[in-house]
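Listing S7. Sequence submitted for prediction.
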Amino acid sequence: MEELIRRCEEIVRDVSFPTVRRWKAEHPQGKAIAYFPVYAPVEVIAAAGMLPVGLRGAGDRLEIQHADARFGSFICSIVKTTLELGLTGHLAPFDGVLFSSICDSARNLCFVLKRNFPELYVDFLHLPHNPESASSRAFLRSEYARLKAELERLAGRRIEEERIREMIARYNENRRLIRALYEWRAEEPHRIRAWELYVLVRAGDVLPVEEHTALLREAREGFARRQVKPRDSIRVILESAFCEQPPLGVIRLLEDAGCYIVDEDLTLGRRWFREDVPVNGDPLQALAESYLDRSVASSVRHDWRYPRFRALLQKVRARRAQAVIFLIAKFCEPAYFDYVLFKRELERAGIPHLLLEFEEKMYTFERLQTEVETFVESLLFD
């Protein structure tokens, strides 16, 4: 089990994308399409015979030397380190990059990449923001069809509907396994550490779905054999790190400071749908309707039929959490906009919470550790 987790951690931390290079060596005619998190219709990309890869910046593995010249100072780390990956040749294995509606900075990154890398296929997927509108379904299906046509042009062959349905089924299986592991972790958080599940799930960003599914099955069996004793910790929900990912050391710090992280939104795109996407009928329509009606609550997707703050309160109750920790990337406007609503609702419900801020390149955590330990002690000994 330790070897499996170590292997996943290496995959997550290596910004040279060895798994993508290996896949392309095994598929000489294959193409790799990166997508900027949080969400992308990976089923359509995979149906084109391409490898979809979640692009989450460079973390603390790359020094920013060139990207600052293209962006202002008050921009989140993930935007700058992603551009730095391109400007330093790390995105060479990719044939295209796909963006969607996350925030203004991500939108700008799309077109900055397009200008700096004219040979690269760079596209922006327009996702609807009004799920109640009858036009949203038709619009999103047409947007998926447009993407499908672009991928067909890039691949030089037609993408059959049956192939899309097949990939939907494979990703459904993958997401079911991830959901099951999250449910298990919520029930027995001493058995599955949050940082372990994080690297295990995030490894799927750079692996073919079949390979990642096999890895999840292996991990499930390993966790089942594990013999561990419960710790004296509080149950917390970790919220708001939906796009830029915190240093792995921060997640470990939270657990070592006495937190059972019973749910989080760190790798939300890997479990974007709350239930399976239908595999019958028009697959693009099924994906469009699932995005509008089956997606998890997220700061990058607006759905006032199911407000984000209400979803957080339901998550707290369902996971029997004692508190919420907000882990927000520096300069992340969507997360801070949501925090205003979260704070109001949590205070109304009498649920304790702690706000922390991070950057990808943090390497010292003493201040965060003191804040978290003080917060935990205040709940344990209240």
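Caption to Listing S7: primary sequence and predicted structure tokens for the chain studied. Residues 16-162 form a domain with the Rossmann fold fold (CATH 3.40.50.11890). The chain has a mean pLDDT of 93.
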